[in-house]
Amino acid sequence: MTYQTVEKIREELRVCPSLGPLLLVGLGVMGGVCGFGWRGWLGLVHASFWVSCLHGGRRWWMSLMLFVFGSWWGLRAVRTPSDSYICLMGREECRVHCRGMVTGCPLPGGPFDFAVYGIKTVDGWKKCSGLVRLRVKESFTYGDNLEVTGGMIYPEAGFQRRHLRTLGMCHELECETVELLAHASGWRKAWAYCLNLRGKLSDGLTEGFRSSRLGGLYLAMSMGRRDLFPQAERESFVKSATIHVFAISGLHVNCLMLATCLMLRTTFLGKRTTRLIALPVIVLYVLLTGPGPSSLRAVLMLCGGTLALCMLRRGNDRHVLCLSALLLLLLNPLYLLHIGFQFSFLIVGVLVYCRPMQRGMKSVMTERWRWRLRTEGRMTMFRGVKRILGAMASCCLAWVGCLALTLHVNRLMPLGALAVNLVVQPLAAMMVEGAVPKIMLSCIWKRASCWMGHILEIAMDYAVKLAEWGAQDELCREGVGIPFERACVYILLFAILFTRHIGKVLKMGMIGGMVVIIAAGLWERQEKASGLMLFRASSGSRACLVMLDRGWGSAFVLVPGCGESAKVAAQWLKRNGVTTVEDLFTVGGVMRKGAQEWMRRMFVRSVVADDEWRRSWEMSRLAASGIHLGHWHVKTNIGYEYRHGGRIWRMSDGHGETGLRYDDGNGGMSIYYNETEDGLALLSFIGSDYAGNVVLKPGLPDRNVYLSFK
Fold first, then answer.
1. CA distance 664 to 531
2. pLDDT, tens digit, for every residue of 133-172?
3. Closest by Cα among 650, 652, 653, 674 to 662
């Protein structure tokens, strides 16, 4: 590290006073939360020592105390949970009888946060504390006191467990019986009334939409209604790297702030006055839609900019960004593991710190336009060209900066994100800005509100089609990924690359290191492991069960499900490159429509049916079409021998328990599921080297679960 680089870092620490404390506290929190070994701790201590020397100068030991505080704060958040109900449960997964209160922002018919304050033991009711995610069919409001009986489920290792942990929860409570003890009272009743306004706002926003699917997507974008986000569209937006437009973040906050200020400026108020009046409205909007790390970051940065405007000072985006990150880490250290926190601050940090380079690129590319004769038409075109180039540069920088994190989290390479984001971003901004006049028109002029709803519906339809285009297999490569450590190294190299006073040789080395990290992730593409995939349609009807072989070359449909679930499953399999169904197992006439949907949408090689369906005219028609017909005897428990040398048995008893025995030649595996009138409720598999289970509640939509045989 050269002397000029050191001086540049010290100058940045002086210009941005919150950067040094953020780095030191962040390094300490990372060590306490991420659970590094002694080598990781040694690297963090070494990095914090250099940062403290650059930040504190001769009093470097005072700055080093921030790293010690961050480590203590992170370890305390992980090792000292406030969930005292866990000690009264006896074990992690068990049936409990507890009382609590609805917290957070409950969505209609969806899961919501449930604060436990009492649990029933053998010695009677005991006071306790804790926060869980409650899943129940009924809808409740904020502040309702409930008495619940159900099972505490500790999610499998992965995204869901980490996401719940960042929100201060360890378990999901699958409700069996629920009783309303008391409604909300006091100030909670007033806040519950405010939360109920979301329903009225939703009716006004979707007025004029002819498609319920597009209306639900618009509510998911503008009001944070994640329960109305279909699984198929969600995967398309994830694969095209445009899912961020549905997260309440800086895009929504800035667009609503702009729309509100424009309406307030019509009353001849000043700029500072309109910002101060509009700020509480934005805060209320974030609280109504559910505060998250990205939305809190946007509100904190907006408050910092408003404060600088009121004090007649020039705002420093870098200082406000670092200060908001520091405040969120002090509020909840586990936010460091939240995907929204990581992507939000990384994208904004890239755009803020790379702004000088972006301006330089625009000035070089538009230099010829500056020296031409300045007419009104040319100046308008010049401003349009500058905006287009700025949007292209921003998309490219954000894509490059978040590439490693995208490979780590989503395990895909979104090549079409550059083109899709250029169009989807303005469309999303237009739809979010149109939410305020749409609500006002729904109150004063219904016909104009319907006309505006038609326009917003067309814009949403185009956004969905663009996302589906960007999610094609040619533009999105799946199954690739890199570890978290490599992602951190990539981000560090990217940050050093845009530091001034670095030689060309060192810059080429940084670029080469970034390319090597991405190329290694693409080269080490892991083969998709075999496993079970369970699909349930958004209507919450009968689910279908699919077994995928290694590499996902073909699929075996063990339970066809209803027609809607089969449609969702077939679409998902086609998007993931699976077009062939080796064997389609059917039992009786209960799921006949699901089997027909499978044969309509997929290439089915063989149909395995029982005695009831085998004698029907449909089977003779299938035989005439060239599909191989198999047969299994359900009552006598005779197994069906399918291709690749395996065997499958289906066994039932008088209590509704159904089991599938799958023999793969390596000791076999047992697949059990509880089949009720509403379909599958409990699914588990047990093998010699692996096991897994998932509990499903009938009627819950979009519970697509993948269980890997690893």
1. 13
2. 888 877 788 888 999 988 887 775 566 777 788 888 888 8
3. 650
For residue 277, the surrounding DSSP H or E stretch is helix 271-289
Once rounded to an integer, what is the mean pLDDT over residues 175-187? Answer: 85
pLDDT digits 0-9 by tens, 159-168? 677 778 888 8
- Beta strands 112-121 and 131-135 are antiparallel
Rounded to a whole number of angstroms, the CA Rg of the chain reads 28
Let me know if domain 85-185 sits in CATH 3.30.870.10: no
pLDDT value at residue 636: 41
CB 229 within 8 A of CB 221: no
From CA 298, how far away is CA 304, in angstroms rounded?
10
What's the whole-model pTM score?
A: 0.74
- Token pair, residue 412, equals 């895909």
Q: With helix as H, strand as E and coil as C, how does 2-38 read? A: CHHHHHHHHHHHHHCCCHHHHHHHHHHHHHHHHCCCH
Pairing of strands 628-631, 603-609: parallel
Task: Name the residue ranges covered by the structural domains of the chain.
Answer: 3-79, 85-185, 199-478, 484-523, 531-708
Residue 195: which of 115, 136, 141 has the closest Cα? 141
Q: Please report, as a single letter, which amino acid is at residue 260.
A: T
Closest CA to 184 of 149, 146, 148, 147: 146
Answer whether 638's CB lies under 8 Å from 624's CB: no
